[in-house]
């Protein structure tokens, strides 16, 4: 296994901490570290499953798995480094929306990644600009498979991911049917890419109840 040297922290959240790092061979990566003592067992299992799922994927528009390992204190996933950061951050820094050709390129590459997952019977369940990364070459990479599921293991009606990205039919109490939520994720991305309000989402509820209220009163339909 390569040895990795942390360069700096990228972000931190309840799921763990992301670092930019370099391997002993000089390859830049990101390390997702989860402190086991700070997590419930269910959350640790989510990260383990994310590593296993990511290791089974190989697609030009999905962030590349490098390695993962576990010590008594830490669970770490090493992944490809995308220099441009998240699409959400890129959008927030822009003063105007993307040109049509730029927006189409982003959308086509995200769809290619999701279609690959669907062929493998995997549902991402959290398609949003925060989980789309941009490489220095402009290539788009889908990331964050923490709430992804293989189709056979998804419970009908189960809700996972950011509430502001839930498909409206889920908030109405509808059943989770196959890959339908991906279509709503696509719509959210198109909207964020093409509006001038700093990447505002279609629905802005921070909780399931708040999102339900947005869905029931929204003027987007």
UniProtKB/TrEMBL annotation:
Membrane-spanning ranges: none
Enzyme class: transferase
InterPro entries to which the protein is assigned, alphabetical: Kinase-like_dom_sf, NEK_Ser/Thr_kinase_NIMA, Prot_kinase_dom, Tyr_kinase_AS
A Gene Ontology molecular function term of the record: protein serine/threonine kinase activity
Pfam families registered for this protein in UniProt: Pkinase (PF00069)
ATP-binding found in the keyword field: yes
Alphabetical UniProt keywords: ATP-binding, Kinase, Nucleotide-binding, Serine/threonine-protein kinase, Transferase
EC number per UniProt: 2.7.11.1
Top-rank taxon: Eukaryota
Gene3D superfamilies hit by this protein: Transferase(Phosphotransferase) domain 1
Residue ranges of every copy of the Protein kinase domain listed in the record: 4-221
Catalytic activity: L-threonyl-[protein] + ATP = O-phospho-L-threonyl-[protein] + ADP + H(+); L-seryl-[protein] + ATP = O-phospho-L-seryl-[protein] + ADP + H(+)
PANTHER family: CAMK FAMILY PROTEIN KINASE, SERINE_THREONINE-PROTEIN KINASE NEK1
Protein's name in the database: non-specific serine/threonine protein kinase
Species classification: Eukaryota, Metazoa, Ecdysozoa, Arthropoda, Hexapoda
